[in-house]
Amino acid sequence: xxxxxxxxxxxxxxxxxxxxxxxxxxxxxxxxxxxxxxxxxxxxxxxxxxxxxxxxxxxxxxxxxxxxxxxxxxxxxxxxxxxxxxxxxxxxxxxxxxxxxxxxxxxxxxxxxxxxxxxxxxxxxxxxxxxxxxxxxxxxxxxxxxxxxxxxxxxxxxxxxxxx
Length: 164
Description:
Elements: H1 5-32, H2 35-71, H3 79-100, H4 109-143, H5 146-156
Helix pairs in contact: 1-2, 1-4, 1-5, 2-3, 2-4, 3-4
């Protein structure tokens, strides 16, 4: 059975925040851990970004945001959030480019600093963005019919929703 919108939203945001909150640790490990451990942590973070975060962004844009725009009378109220999604996608792509250039697990200081810069930019953006999205979800929870809430909950259960 599909969970309710508040359940899906809360559990999914908690799962996202768990990974997002680890991002500074991964960035710091680039300076302190062995190269192979740092690369492994980067790979795990990248898997989260592409396998869970980006599908979350897509699901929010295709389900949640249109409903919010309808509720706010289509005043382009979600345009800032959509722009942030564009920036998230850009930073995830930049991180993928940076990590693909790691030569056989060897991290140079320049590459380490470049990757850290992207990771911290992405971390800061996601912390603010997810908090804003949580506030919007509370508005939706109280402003839609049960049928619409159920439809949104089902749509927000995208790939990666139920993974750790």
